[in-house]
């Protein structure tokens, strides 16, 4: 080290002699004047002179490059300007009014020459030539060239496309554009060419070149002055600095090198140690004669020695040297022409690593808490929230996690104090752990940590399960298997929100040999506290959802009335995220007909369910009037509008934001189905052969909008067809539009010989999403036909004497059906109804008797007058006919059709 310093000092003394200190002719020293120093500095052998020459060359190159670039740019811009101007002038003149007509005149030159010259001068171009399609000039700035052949390309212009070309003419390099002149019918009747010499467009370079040269001269002058100033300052700063001062600077540098608290090592190109400061000697425990020896021979570990000998770049590489962790940074010294070798710095990071480890643990725990806040409570489902807690904690915090909740919490209720819980969720690094399975009802004994947590509301740590008699007493056989499995430590934390304790969460450890500690307990409590809020929210939502579902199901039909026209199967699935307003119904109508209705109220919650109940009740009432589907939807539309008006005055949030409905009436005697819809998806029809189609049913506006009438469509359905009605929740979802849903529905419905139940099952298997976001209502109705052997019809003349024949015909028909005991009441009913039709109605009069679940008598007439039941006085001679009909029949009524009305009466079959 001393020898190195000696050599360095000697070399430094020789090297730091400045040019200012020169020996005179008599051996003495003298200083050169400033002018001499400046001339030396600006000479080509000095650095300042070289910088000066380099700057001059760079400035000259920039000036030359700028001039060349300017000339090229101006030439390009001039050519482009000439092309644009010539094309614009030619197209403008070709499209000018009168140009096509002038070309068709006997003497185009007389009409166009003066105009072309005026346009040429105004546009500042060199020529505008109008020519025929053969290229013969009609105009030219020089009249002697009129009538001669045009020089240029005209074939593209004759095809209707403008052409721009660069040529060298008598005026020099120029650009000319040739465009077609088109007649109104699109035919090319002539050509127009405009040209301009490029020299007439230029001129920019002549104006900018002096400015460029002036700027270059100024830059050159500034560069020369700047170089002179830098050289003078360099000379001034080094004046008077001799060898002694330079040596002292080196000694100061050496003192600083050995005083720093970071090891510094310089290794030569051959791997020998050139220099090591005091801190490096201490950190590496180097021998006294280390300098000059190869680093591989200094007793260092192989990894550290290989790194120092390799000379490669290293950044904060950590190596274990003895009991220290050293962070090593290394860079080669020959990157910019320096001597071969490398410089390495060493920093003791043992304590820093320990702090960093603790910081990493804290960071991981904060990250776990953040992910718990994001990943727990994504749904309002109690079970799913418990599962999310287990998923977040395994395996980052515990090897196994189990969540036990009271049954009341799962049902949305507040639990009572107790130790009986149900295992709701479980997660672990393996699936074969002998813990209680999910769904198991667990009664914790009083000595267990779980029971203690439920009583006190505090978390409990069991560091050694094998030595915990309180926990082992829960189930000796199972707890023994748990310990044998390798689970050795437990933290149990109560799921608590305020004073309400809903259950416990158990964190089990098996892989890490260390038991849980107090820091782990704090983290577990924080995790469970966050999950408890989400579980309580889900519990409250479950309660509200259960109430809404209960209300909704109480408003939906529990069973359908008996009828023979349709074989019905249905499905109703409430949404997972909230109860909606979907509803459906099947309503028997007079004449063996059946009405099927399905609707949807937009929105979720109790209000949607209550609105649905009001609409369903209204449809029941309106269907009792036996109205056509379009008229019934019209009345329903008015009702929804009135509901909105009434509720807007009280609470705008309670207004019906939208409702849709589809109403269909099927007649088994004619196999006709009359359908109308208000903003609802169309029905699907599955033919007996298994083919599926969606009939064109006019789509009316949703209920409550008003303003437009509803329309009906009549569908003829073969016996055994399946009519499918549904709500939009079946075919539309967040990830699926309605068109894709309808295609999936078509595929699921296809197939013959399926019962309505099988059809419902197939549809839900194909279209039901994992977690429906909207209610789903589905009805599948297979059509039945009322055979001709169960229908009897007669035409009745408008003569009271015909009533006797009617009674006789009916009696015979009832005898054929085996209903002789019903003859008397049927004759009486028909006699009264036919007599009223003859007396008060109008022809034609027709009777129809249907044998279905009941015996139905119908009397058709052409009058729209409705009969009324009244109580006849004792002295009245008439007025008791309808009263008798009402007494004899189970039900009776009137319905209207386009040709009149029908009075009907039903009697139960014996």
From TrEMBL:
Domain (PPM-type phosphatase) ranges: 563-783
Domain of life: Bacteria
GO molecular function: ATP binding; kinase activity; phosphatase activity
Parts of the chain that traverse the membrane: 52-74, 211-230
Gene Ontology process terms (BP): phosphorelay signal transduction system
Keyword ATP-binding: yes
Residues in GAF domain copies: 381-545
Keyword NAD: no
Location(s), subcellular: Cell membrane
Region listing for Disordered, in residue ranges: 1-36
InterPro entries in UniProt: Bact_Sigma-Reg (IPR052016), GAF (IPR003018), GAF-like_dom_sf (IPR029016), HATPase_C_sf (IPR036890), HATPase_dom (IPR003594), PAS-like_dom_sf (IPR035965), PPM-type-like_dom_sf (IPR036457), PPM-type_phosphatase-like_dom (IPR001932)
Topology term for the membrane: Multi-pass membrane protein
Recorded GO CC terms: plasma membrane
Keywords carried by this UniProt record: ATP-binding, Cell membrane, Hydrolase, Kinase, Membrane, Nucleotide-binding, Phosphoprotein, Transferase, Transmembrane, Transmembrane helix, Two-component regulatory system
The name this protein goes by in its record: Histidine kinase
Organism: Streptomyces albiflavescens
